[in-house]
Structure formats: structure tokens, C-alpha cells
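Review form for a predicted model. The reviewer records the input and the model, then writes brief findings.
Reviewer: anonymous (R2)
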Amino acid sequence: MGRASPGGVPAGAFVTPELTTTLQVELVARLALGLILGAMIGFERELHRQPAGFRTHSLVAVGAALFTIISAYGFTGVAVDPTRIAAQIVSGIGFIGAGTILQHRGNVRGLTTAASLWSVAAIGMAAGAGMIVIAVIGTALILIVLALLDRVEALARRIMRLPPDRPGRARDPVDDGLTDDLL
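Model under review:
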């Protein structure tokens, strides 16, 4: 039998700490922030008719925030390592991202959406950890990349007189850019 600590709990055991009402309200606000920030990025993806849009990005962000909160506040004890859950979020999101990548007629689609899901998980983790400024700035930067950098690329191609499409990407004249015809 293991030695008991002064509270009657075996040494090294996982203990769920008591959380004050004030802290619980703050944690709920963190979840809501993760949801809102993820939704903003998901809305941009939805506008571009990507396979993972508003709801998917919202769920990834709030899920990552929830896992981060559970990791940080769910358990205490000497055997607790809060970084383990964070590491699993990072690797687990890869499975969701891989599901958004499609290959059709020699073209690979969905890489940006997969990257945005990976990034949204980080936003959720930041929100869950209480890093509000980091989460908000990270969201703004991701939105800049998604909404503006394709326009910068198109402008640079025009200035440099390069073809509008990337090398190796053949345009299908009947392809409307949607992925539902691939499923």
C-alpha cells in the first residue's frame, strides 16, 4: 500500500481540485473565446467553400481549449504532467487535417484548410490557457494569411508576368472549385 498524504489521499494519486466559482466562470469565458476565435477562422473557410468550415473550426478550437483547461485544472498531484494533453492535441489534430486533404485529377486540395485546423487548435489551446492576447493576435494573423496573402500572390504573379496558376495545377474548365463533386 502506498503512503497516504495528510488529506488521506495516497501519495502520487490524481486529485481533482476544488475550483472556485470565480475560476469556473473564467474558464467558461476561455472556452467561449476559443469558440468565437475558431468560428471566425472557420467562417473565412466557409466563405471559400472549403471542406472544413465554420462548425469544424469552431469545434476544433473549443475542443482544444477544453482539453487545455482539463490539463491545467482538472488534476493535481506529483504524477500529473499537463504538457501531455497538449502534445496529444497537436498530434491528434493531424488526423482531422489529413481528412481534409483531397487529391483529384493530379491536384491536391485542402492543404490550407488542414493548416488552418492545425492553427485553430493552437488558438484554442491559447484561449484555454488564458493567453487571451496571444489567441486574439494569432487569430488576426491567421485571418490575414487566409484572406489577404492569396491576393498578394496573385498581384506578384501579375507584376512578374507569371501564369496565374501554380505549376503542375491544371485547371478543369467545368470545375467550380467545390469539393462536393469529389465525394
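Findings: Residues 105 and 173 are 13 Å apart (CA to CA).
Further findings: The chain has five helices and two strands.
Recommendation: see findings above.
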